[in-house]
Every structure is written in C-alpha cells, then in structure tokens.
Amino acid sequence: MTARAIDPGALETTASKSKYQNELSMALVLVGIAIMFEILGWIFVGDSFLANQQRLSIIILQVSVIGILAVGVTQVIITGGIDLSSGSVVGLSAMVAASLAQSSTDPRALFPALTDLMPVWPILAGVLAGLVVGVINGGLLAKTNIPPFIATLGTMVCVRGIAKWYTLGQPIGLLTPEFSWIGRSFNVLGFPVPLPVLIFLFVALIFHVALGYTRYGKFTYAIGANPQAARVSGINIGSHLIKVYAIAGLLSGLAGVVTAARAASAQPTMGTAYELDAIAAAVIGGTSLAGGSGRILGTVIGTLILGVIMSGFTFLKIGSYYQEIMKGAIIVAAVVIDQYRRSRKDRV
Amino acid sequence: MTEPSIAAATRPTKITTDREGPALLSVRGIRKEFAGVVALNDVSFELRAGTVHALMGENGAGKSTLMKVISGIYRPDGGTILLNGREVELTTPLAALDLGIAMIHQELNLMAPMTVAENIWIRREPRNRLGLIDHAELNRRTAALFAELDIRIDPDRLVGDLSVANRQMVEIAKAVSYNSQVLIMDEPTSTLTEREVEHLFRIINTLRAKGTGIIYITHKMNELFEIADEVSVFRDGEHIATRASSDLTRDDVIRMMVGRDISQMFPKVPAEIGDVVLSVRNLTLRGVFDDISFDLRAGEILGVAGLVGAGRSNIAETIFGVTPATSGSMLVDGRHVVIDTPRTAMQQGMAFLTEDRKDTGCFLNLTIQENMQIAALQSGFHRNGFVEQRRLGQECQTLREALRVKTPSMEQKIVNLSGGNQQKALIGRWLLTKPRILILDEPTRGIDVGAKAEIHRMISSLAAEGLAVIMISSELPEILGMSDRVMTIRQGKLTGILDRAEADQIKIMELVAQ
C-alpha cells in the first residue's frame, strides 16, 4: 500500500498483475503440486521428484501432444464451442503422415511408389488432414444450427472410422529416420530438449499473441461473450468459426504428426481420449466453458499440471487404475475451485 | 421527465385505500457494503398492507440492493427487518418466500420447457397415491388461481411458448400462490404493451384489495401517479423521503431523485438539415411490416413512434441487415445498396444501437475497452491483422471523456457499470466507426434521469455535426422533444410522417393507436 502511494507507476503494475492473476494462481498451484510430490517422494520412495533432469523433460514431452491440442481447443472453447474430434484427428493424421513416411526397406509399404519421401510431404499431409476435418467442423456450425458438441461428436466418430479404414486397421511401421527426427531431442544450453516440446511452446506463443493482439483474437472473445452482439457489431460469425475450428483441426493434425514421429510408427487408435485431456488442460488453466474467457498461458500451465500429476503418480509407483480415478477427481476439483474463486470475485 | 407515454393512454383508475394501515413490513437501519463501497446506508422504510409502494431513484441509488436484501438474496451488514411486527431472518430467497415475501425479477425466472402449472407449483406439486405428480389436480389448482386473478392462460401450455407479458403473469400467479403478503415487482412494465400494462394494473388492484403489500420499482413517472399509494425516493444508497403519491408532483420526485432541478430535459440544438442520405423504398419483411418508405437527411433526427410490437424495432433491424428484407430497396446517397448483414450496413456508414443492452449490446464479461472497440475493428485500427491497440486506446479514452462514461478504468468489465454508463459506452462503440447514419432503438430505456439528459444532449450535438439519426422511442416526450420529424408506425404500417411543428401528443396517439 505504501509503495503505491509513493510510486505513480504502481497503478499500472497492479492493473497488469490483476490481468494475469488467474495464471499466477494456477502457476502457484503447479508449484504446490510439484513440492507435494517432492515431499511424498522423500517419504515413500526415498528419492527426489524434482532433482531429476530426465524426469522433468519427460513430463513436458509427455504432455506436449496434449498441449498442442489444448492450444486449439482453448480457442474453440473461448468461442463458446467445444471440439471433441481432436483425439480422432491425431489418429487419422498420424496414419496419413506415417503412410507417406515409410522407408523403402518395408516390403509391405502402403504406397510402395511413395517411400523414402522428404519429411516435408508426410508432415504437410498430416497437417492438411487435420485442417480438412477442422474446416468440416466449422462449416457444419456455420451452415447449420447444430450445437458444436454434436457436430464434433459426429466428426470424432467418423474420423476414427476413416483412420481405421485407411489401412483396414493395420498399423504402419518402418518410418524413415528423417521423419522420426521430429520426435528427437536437442541440446539447448546443455539441456536435452525434445523437439515436440519446442513445437508445443512455439504454437502456444503464436496463439497467445494471436488471441491477445490481433483482430482474430478480439473477434474470438466477442463471439464467445455474446454472439448476438458480435453479429450486430458486424462480425461474420460463420466465417470466423470456420477459421477457429480450422486452426484447431490443423493443430490436431500437427499433434498427430508429432505422435507418429515419436513412436516411429502409427496406429489408428492413436490419440484415443486425448480430446478429453486437452479440454481438461484448458479448463484447469482457467478457460470457461461458457465462452468469452480464457488464455493460452493458462492452458499451458493447465497442461503442465496434468503432466506433473501423471508423472508424479508414476514416480510414487501408484497403479495406472488409481491414476485414472485420481485424474478425474482432480479435473472436477480444479473447476470447482475455479468457480468458487470467480464467484467470490464477482460478488465484489 | 416522462409525460404520459403511449402506453398510458387508457387505464383503470387507482383504488384509494386507507393510508394509515398497520406496517406489514418494516425495514430499520439497513446497511450493506460491497468491498468497502456503501450500497445502502442506514435505510429505513415501511410498507403497509393493502398498498402499492413505489420506489424511485436513479440507477445505483440502492433500490435493487434493498429489494435483494428484503427478498433474501443479500444479507445485510446491519439493521433489522420486521414482518408483521416480528423480527425475521431472511437467509435465502426460499426462506423469504416461505415467510410470504416474493420478488418478481426483471429477468424472469421460469423454466421454459415446463408447463405453466408445473412452474407455479414447483416443489409443492400435489401427489397421487403412487407418489407421482397429480397433473389433473395441478391444473385444477392453477385454473382456480388464474380465475381469481383474471388471467387467461392454459395451465398446460409450455412457458417457453408464452409471450413475455404472459410469463410475467405466470410469475405473479406463482408469487400469489405462496399467499405472499409482500410482493416485489422490479420494473414490471418495461417490456409490456399498453393492454398488458392495463391487465397488470388490474391484477395489482385485485391484490391490493386483498391486503397484499406491493413494492413497485419503476422509472416511469406516470405509473407512479397511476398505481402507487406511496412513494419512497432513494439517492446514493440513502432513503430520501416517503410521501403519499397524491401529495407529490412530477417535479418534486425528480428533484428528490437527482438532488437538483432539471430545467431542460430535451436540449434540442437546431441543426442544419442537409441532403438525403438514406432513402428507404417499399421496405417489407413479410408478416412483420409492409411497404415502408421514407427519406432521411443529414443533420436530421427522425423520431419513430409506435406501440410496442408495432414493428419499429423490426424495421430498424432490417435497415441494418440483421434480418434482411423480403422486398423493397434502400438507397444511400442516391445509390442502390444491398444490405443483408450488419457488416454490409456498416460499410454504408450505418450504426445501430440495439434496444436490448444485455442481449444484443454488451459483451458483459469483456472490458469496457473491448466493448467499445469491437465494431471499429471491422473497418480500421488494424495492420496486418494486429490491432493498433495504442491508437485505439487513445481514441476510446477521448470518447469516454466526451461521453462522460464514469469508470475508474477502461479495463473494468462492462457488467460493473450502471445502465446509463453502459449505454454511453455502447454509443461510443458506434461513434468510433465514424458513422453517417445512426439508428438508435430506445436509447434511454432503463436509464436514470441524469444520464438520460446527457444522452439527449449527445444525440442532439451529433445531429448538429451532420449525422443522420433515426431514433425509436416509446416515450412521447422524448420523441417530441428530440425529433425534427416524427414517423408513426401502426401494426407494421407507416401511418404518417409529421413535422416538428405539427407533431403533438394527440396527433401521434391517433396515428399509432389501434
């Protein structure tokens, strides 16, 4: 208080602090959870959770695919919609990309004439597959009156079917080393940083800027906050929704490419239920399902919270069944806490 | 402020009752703060059984907060509430309802997919022997209740299919079904037509005769003298005075509300009328309005009068492309234009302040800055997709000062502003687009007296700067005070265009009434 009285610029900083207050408190939650695992680790495992570079890089690697999806779905949720198709798109685009990334050493390659291609082709094909699904999602919403939940539920089922039909259910293996390179790690300042992590952070940065500082972002929030008012303000809602869902689809496609590259193979069931993790990450990060609010920074933190929890459970040698049970509970708890906090703030 | 509005043409006269009845509800020394801001400061007032007690005051004066305390939504920080002389604890709205205090909110709280009868008797449904809901009994009870109140609605209809007025009747019936002794109505007539208002007042008279105490919040001065027995005026969270409405004049009430005299409500500045900017030719929206033709000139304010439901707002929406016309044409500056979306209308230099601030105006969860800039982003203030936030911020700041939007910061959410300030911010939104044609639909509805005068002054000076203005209003004094010409609409048809000199209340009433 005294500092504010002295420093005339203090008002500015309090304003900007409150702007990121949600993200700040989520970051504190993240740190709190990590410390909790650190303490539990010493008690039950006799080992440090955090002082393990490899573990930290695996945490973020594991969630980078979910993170890329979550960046897309956050934008969709801000418009007041939902995208259930992202997990299926991961499966499809992994299959499409892998089918064009096969090595000529595979005698049973899907397209024997298209082996040993430059990695740019499978990447483009995978991303494009996602983009097409996204445009279909957005187009359905723009041209019909069906709710986003139903539209993307439909494409979710369809796209999974297409992914299985593509090879009649067979997995695709023996990918070129150039393609699998996307899943590798690099040495950045002495730390091994996996490329998928860099892709995730890069995508997050781009859309953090896009939502905060461009017309695209302003219109996205406006549509979610009040679609009728947005329309009267001259926004073409249909074409904007196509853009938002197309971007979400494209990011899902990218996530599929990364998934195939990391596994150096592809299966049609890849990405199953990822859409739910992505939505959970966005919601934990403070994006409201009612639309009109949410930020990418929050989603990144939400993604990390999910990752820390999962790897923490593994670290404590808690069985995978228990992990799932706890994960569900944590998602609900995060939203309950968030709503409680908001309602307290609104009452002011 | 409000001379008799159109809606006030014919109505049953007030039944006078004994003023010296016992206090049904006494509120003593109520105090309520929100984060250090005093919303109610030591407020006391009394409601007598069998009377209608009107509450008046500018937005933010504390009326709604007090009502929320009385109906159990807010808990007061100090003071006591006595019902029939006994102190009561109102912890929740349900507790208040069970004690016989019912509130009918501005936003109606009914469940649209359920029937009228189910809505009224919810959580008190009659059961049959199997423990299932006895629908025959349910409908019978509802019919009896409706007969008592002279309401004619089929108890089996879905609430979602009812008009706003009928939903309000259902809400009132629901409150009565609780045998409520105290009934609170928050601006009940703001969306009703003349006949519906008449019906509402009949019901109020029935309830008053039965001994119910009715607290009636309103902004409409004429209603006050028609229906209220007593009037309490609030200002800045304090109770200023309570008087019998027969002892008061309009000016007295205004003076108490604003704490000063308002000498000139409609500061119309004579403006130079220029060329025709917009010509509307035979505009038709099938089933809604027919064959509307008029010209609008630069510097002119064209008032549009008509009853609620006559199609005034629909015409405005069609001109702005919200609901494209089924036939007819429009010319801007003498050139034919096709307007089928708000976007195309904005490209022709139009701006449209909609009737409903909440539904089609504000982005309640976004900041004032974001609310103001959104329309201007369609045509400018961006480079390569990036918003020119600095320039935009400066322009918004300038407008905010010019329009006197009262807020500590542009980063405040607009939901925190009063209705008047929200409206000014929305006018700012459209001025940022540098329009040539400004369509205003009920620009001062639900706004307090002070802000109203400021908005009138603003509209006047915009016309003086050469803007062409179409102003729809249900308040005749506003229409007469502001307009250069008055266009009258009756049941979707244009019935006349009057010059300022020839327009008066009687002529307009004749042209708009059925």
TrEMBL record, chain A:
The keyword Membrane applies. It holds the Pfam family BPD_transp_2. It is found in: Cell membrane. It is a multi-pass membrane protein. It comes from the Bacteria. One of its GO terms (molecular function) is transmembrane transporter activity. Keywords: Cell membrane, Membrane, Transmembrane, Transmembrane helix. The chain crosses the membrane at residues 24-44, 56-78, 120-142, 149-168, 188-211, 296-315. GO terms for cellular component: plasma membrane. This is Sugar ABC transporter permease. It comes from Gemmobacter lanyuensis.
Automatic annotation (TrEMBL), chain B:
This is Ribose/galactose/methyl galactoside import ATP-binding protein. GO terms for molecular function: ABC-type carbohydrate transporter activity; ATP binding; ATP hydrolysis activity. Belongs to the ABC transporter superfamily. PROSITE patterns: ABC_TRANSPORTER_1, ABC_TRANSPORTER_2. It is found in: Cell inner membrane; Cell membrane. It is a peripheral membrane protein. The keyword Cell inner membrane applies. PANTHER family: CARBOHYDRATE TRANSPORT ATP-BINDING PROTEIN MG119-RELATED, GALACTOSE_METHYL GALACTOSIDE IMPORT ATP-BINDING PROTEIN MGLA. Residues 25-261, 271-514 form the ABC transporter domain. GO terms for cellular component: plasma membrane. Signal peptide: none annotated. It comes from the Bacteria. Pfam families: ABC_tran. Keywords: ATP-binding, Cell inner membrane, Cell membrane, Membrane, Nucleotide-binding, Repeat, Sugar transport, Translocase, Transport. Its EC number is 7.5.2.11. InterPro entries: AAA+_ATPase, ABC_carbohydrate_import_ATPase, ABC_transporter-like_ATP-bd, ABC_transporter-like_CS, P-loop_NTPase. It catalyses: D-galactose(out) + ATP + H2O = D-galactose(in) + ADP + phosphate + H(+). Part of an ABC transporter complex involved in carbohydrate import. Could be involved in ribose, galactose and/or methyl galactoside import. Responsible for energy coupling to the transport system.
